[in-house]
Write a structure and sequence with these properties.
3 helices, single chain, 101 residues, 31% helix, 21% strand, four-stranded antiparallel sheet, alpha+beta
Length: 101
Amino acid sequence: MENVQINVMVRNLGVGQHKIHCPSFECRDRKKKNLRTLSVKVDHDGAVYYCHHCSLSGSDNYKEEREVTPMSVVKQLDEKPLTNNGLDWLVSAKRQRVKSV
């Protein structure tokens, strides 16, 4: 039961190392309930977890199950040459900035 809860919690985490609350009964019934004792390391192949209080440990391999969302490609805008009005504005803005500093 605890491993099922951990696997669901781990799948919502991003890639990296995390400290979360351990769902085991031993950790839930202890005095310091607010400590995040479950260390989780998530990478692209799966996750490995270990609780520093109750020694609960395991792994979740979801390499074949994990859905990869494609990244959107940013369209590069065409660069237009700077007009004289734009150049004048930049020069005046720089002068104002230098005077105020």
